[in-house]
Amino acid sequence: MFDIKRLHVDTTTTLIAMEDEVDRLVAAWRRERPDLDVEPLEVLSRVSRLARHLDRARRLAFTEHGLESWEFDVLTALRRAGTPYQLSPGQLLTQTLVTSGTMTNRIDRLTKKGLVERLPDPSDRRGVLVRLTDEGRDRADQALAGLLAQERAILGELTRAQRGELAGLLRQLTAPFDNVPG
Amino acid sequence: MFDIKRLHVDTTTTLIAMEDEVDRLVAAWRRERPDLDVEPLEVLSRVSRLARHLDRARRLAFTEHGLESWEFDVLTALRRAGTPYQLSPGQLLTQTLVTSGTMTNRIDRLTKKGLVERLPDPSDRRGVLVRLTDEGRDRADQALAGLLAQERAILGELTRAQRGELAGLLRQLTAPFDNVPG
DNA sequence: GTGAAGTCTCTTGATGTCAAACATCTTGAC
DNA sequence: GTCAAGATGTTTGACATCAAGAGACTTCAC
Q1: Band of pLDDT at residue B175, cut at 50, 70 and 90
Q2: Does B43 contact A163 at a Cβ distance shorter than 8 Å?
Q3: All domains of chain B, ordered by start, with CATH?
Q4: By mean pLDDT, which of A78-82, A122-126, B3-7 is the weakest?
């Protein structure tokens, strides 16, 4: 088993490692269901919970720039595509992990706000291309700067080496999802 | 900068490290905005995306047990509390990271399904206690076993030591959120 | 005791998301 | 050519979530 929790049984110096909600969660399971091996929760429950915290923090950061989180997701996907800043709804799906109906709705709303526009795909008459307007591009750039500042603050807990290690381990978990069309 | 990506420029042996969507995302930003340091995304975008993938996988696993994800979250929080399997809505909030209105709604629906029941708090007349029914307890236990099996499969990518390391690094990021009431 | 401030849960209204069905177009085997 | 299978984007209806605020109760200083 892991000894990590041993590090902070001494409550006088919590500098070494703070307990988090998942520690309490896992301890509770070990008490209630000692027959079960709940070790997987140590990793994956933390991922889920951290993501929820990040969602909330991002929401706050974006409202300062007059954007919603979902708007940021779509606008930056287009921004990353480079000139002429256009992608198909299908390409946007794989980047944002939402369903196609949701994406249609998002494009509608962004079009109404003048941040993107819909064009027919010249090479496939079923298809559509979504293009960023100039204002959409500016808004995306501003919000990205804000987001990075916030994320840097959150990651201040870790050294550069730790961040690299964490990124590598997470990549091993995400790669199967991203590469097998699931 | 990180050298991690260097590991898999050789496309003949991808055993070492597979590229994921965030690698592509970061590469795109470095091309489009070379003036910006987007290193924080290497960690936090992976956390968010992995969480979305996990959400989907969990949803599938739970439907096999006739439960929704949100039902699982509430039922297991009560299950972990131990006999007599009851908590206040407020305690459930902090564990599930939803707003109070959402929790009210969840308790309503679980009550209708006969999985929990609402009792007046004997020590505080503003308060309520939510208690698991016998059926609720059984359903929670079954679904937990299913979830753990699935999570073990996902984590098969990593060695035990890597899982321990990952858990430790994630704890450092989640602890500030969990301990400073935010 | 009394009042102000805080806590706890529920209600309300707006909104975003999903799953599933659908219309349109493309592709490839024959 | 033609037709079935697949791909693409949209529509629909149900539903869960959130933010904000209201109502009921508790706590604590005085």
Answers
A1: confident
A2: yes
A3: 64-182 (1.10.10.10)
A4: B3-7
Q: Closest to A157 (Cβ–Cβ): which among B19, B32, B173?
A: B173
- The size of chain A, in residues, is 182
Residue A86, SS3? strand
Residues 6+ apart with CB under 8 A from B119: B86, B128, B129, B130, B131
Residues of A in contact with B102 (CB under 8 A): none
Count of Cβ atoms closer than 10 Å to residue B77 Cβ: 22
Query: What's the pLDDT at A8?
Result: 37
Phi/psi for A119 (5° steps) reads -125, 150
Name the average pLDDT for chain B: 85
Q: pLDDT-derived band of residue B49, with 50, 70 and 90 as boundaries? A: confident
Determine whether the interchain pair B21/A94 forms a contact, defined as Cβ–Cβ distance below 8 Å: yes
Nearest chain B residue to A153, by CA: B40
Cβ of A105 near strand D (under 7 Å)? The reply is yes
Q: Give the distance, in angstroms, between the CA of residue A182 and the centroid of all CA atoms in the same chain.
A: 18
Q: Residues B120-136: what's their mean pLDDT?
A: 93
Task: Report if CB A46 to strand D is under 7 Å.
Answer: no
Task: List all nucleotides in chain D with at least one atom under 7 A from a protein Cβ.
Answer: 6-13, 16-21, 23-27
Per-residue model confidence as pLDDT tens digits over A52-69? 888 878 887 787 788 888
Look at residue B64 and give its three-state secondary structure.
coil
DSSP E strands in A8-87: the ranges are: 86-87
Residue A50 CA, nucleotide C2 C1', distance (Å): 45
pLDDT of residue B171: 93
